[in-house]
């Protein structure tokens, strides 16, 4: 028996499923979850002292690698000044300035404590601003677990087979119209029928919660045009892609300006932080300047702001994203080459520091349907083979992988060597 197993047995007695977020439970790959005790750079160490090259990065935030010395130091300094006051602090304004200066579509920003809070609040704001109830999302996209958004959702909900969760009232879900990602015609058609009732379109500009699906040419442009035509708010959920696909997020990669943007993960430097922001005119609808209520005891927590701001400073250094994208390219190209050599039908995707792996005959995966048609048994076998070789990937076929600045030639080569061995066994 391993320490992880013992810990999992104990955890299951007192925590539902033994985990505090369902996707951690390994239901998507079979077996039992690994319990970790330490992270350093590109590596994490489990409770049995086995070290892994980590491509989960705490599900995205760890873009500098684990325990980055500057992030740790800034948190230590803040610790001595107190953990939080529930009152304004100077660092919140510094953080807001940094976000607005980095992502030009954001003229005003409000900090919250998670990505779910960010998307939930952005939806409420869009509804309040437009005085409309309906929202449009896309099947397989995941925007956190607020009621309105847990409809045909991706990520853990899809992994566990509950894309529509019990507990979400039908009277709430009926206001969420779910369309097909990367299919602009279905959007135009829906808007022709009910466009004047739609408060917002919310979209992951790169769908990272159904693996990693970039937008096809014209899709995001089409969403922008439809929102302009019908007076709906365009919300880019950049919780995953913000500060990850590029410094200014996917909106800068694809050159589309949303009305609102939601952020999370990297912005907290590993601490629980989210944010939503955008056009001043819309953001001023939020209390206390406007009537749409939104609040949080821990919002803008100084410890979290300090960690996040330090991380944003580090990733703003010249050349950071070029290096990250190059390492991600080496990884995905290398995997593709080795799969080909082993005659395994396989495809990859990547944008900046995020990537997707697909066991499929298709060369390009662009739709939710293609994602769900991938060979899941083969993914599971690959997953466990890689785990054995000391490579930690997300335990779900529907989650993107993340490369950090700490992943260098050595880690990528180790990953490719491991993959070569595992592909040969499939
Ligand atoms: N894809 C999810 C977040 O973006 C995975 C994290 C979770 O559900 O715990």
Question: Could you walk me through the main structural features you see in this protein, from its secondary elements to its overall organization?
Answer:
The protein is an alpha/beta fold. It has two domains: 3-67 and 318-425, Aspartate Aminotransferase, domain 1 (Alpha-Beta Complex); 69-315, Type I PLP-dependent aspartate aminotransferase-like (Major domain) (Aspartate Aminotransferase, domain 2). 39% of the residues lie in helices and 14% in strands. It has 15 helices and 14 strands. A seven-stranded mixed β-sheet has the order 4-10-9-8-7-5-6, sandwiched between helices. Strands 1-2-3-13 form a four-stranded mixed β-sheet. A three-stranded antiparallel β-sheet has the order 11-12-14, with helices on one face. A hairpin with a 4-residue loop joins strand 2 and strand 3 (51-54). The mean pLDDT is 97. The chain binds ligand LHPZP3FS. The site of the ligand N[C@H](C=O)CCC(=O)O has 9 residues, from helix 5.
**CATH H-level name of the largest domain... which superfamily?**
Type I PLP-dependent aspartate aminotransferase-like (Major domain)
CATH topology label of the largest domain: Aspartate Aminotransferase, domain 2
User: How is the main sheet built?
Assistant: 7 strands, mixed
CATH class of the largest domain: Alpha Beta
How many strand elements? 14
Residue-averaged pLDDT, rounded?
97
Number of domains: 2
Please work out how many helical segments DSSP would assign: 15
Major sheet: arrangement of strands: 4-10-9-8-7-5-6
Shape: globular
What is the strand content?
A: 5-15%
């Amino acid at each position: 028996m391993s320490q992880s197993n013992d810990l999992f047995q104990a955890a299951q007695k007192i925590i539902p499923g033994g985990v505090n977020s369902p996707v951690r439970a390994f239901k998507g790959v079979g077996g039992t979850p690994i319990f970790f005790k330490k992270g350093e750079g590109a590596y994490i160490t489990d409770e049995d002292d086995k070290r892994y090259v980590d491509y989960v990065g705490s599900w995205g935030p760890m873009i500098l690698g684990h325990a980055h010395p500057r992030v740790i130091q800034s948190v230590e300094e803040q610790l001595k000044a107190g953990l939080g006051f529930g009152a304004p602090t100077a660092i919140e304004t510094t953080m807001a300035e940094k976000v607005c200066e980095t992502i030009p579509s954001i003229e005003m920003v409000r900090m919250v404590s998670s990505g779910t809070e960010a998307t939930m609040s952005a939806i409420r704001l869009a509804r309040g601003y437009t005085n409309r109830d309906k929202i449009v999302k896309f099947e397989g996209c995941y925007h956190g677990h607020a009621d309105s958004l847990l409809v045909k959702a991706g990520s853990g909900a899809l992994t566990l087979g509950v894309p529509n969760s019990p507990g979400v009232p039908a009277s709430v879900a009926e206001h969420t119209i779910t369309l097909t990602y990367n299919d602009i015609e279905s959007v135009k058609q829906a808007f022709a029928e009910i466009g004047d009732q739609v408060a917002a379109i919310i979209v992951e500009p790169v769908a990272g919660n159904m693996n990693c699906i970039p937008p096809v040419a014209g899709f995001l442009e089409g969403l922008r045009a439809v929102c302009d035509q019908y007076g709906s708010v365009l919300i880019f959920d950049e919780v995953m892609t913000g500060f990850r696909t590029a410094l200014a997020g996917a909106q800068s990669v694809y050159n589309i300006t949303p009305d609102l943007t939601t952020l999370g993960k990297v912005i907290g430097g590993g601490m629980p932080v989210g944010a939503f922001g955008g056009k001043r005119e819309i953001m001023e609808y939020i209390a206390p300047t406007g009537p749409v209520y939104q609040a949080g005891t821990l919002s803008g927590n100084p410890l979290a702001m300090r960690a996040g701001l330090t991380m944003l400073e580090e990733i703003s250094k010249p050349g950071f994203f070029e290096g990250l994208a190059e390492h991600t390219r080496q990884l995905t190209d290398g995997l593709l080459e080795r799969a080909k050599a082993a005659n395994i039908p396989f495809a990859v995707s990547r944008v900046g520091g995020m990537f997707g792996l697909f066991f499929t005959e298709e060369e390009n995966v662009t739709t939710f349907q293609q994602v769900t048609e991938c060979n899941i048994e083969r993914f599971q076998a690959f997953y466990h083979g890689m785990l054995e070789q000391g490579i930690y990937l997300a335990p779900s076929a529907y989650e993107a992988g993340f490369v950090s600045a700490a992943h260098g030639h050595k880690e990528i080569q180790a990953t490719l060597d491991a993959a070569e061995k595992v592909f040969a066994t499939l």
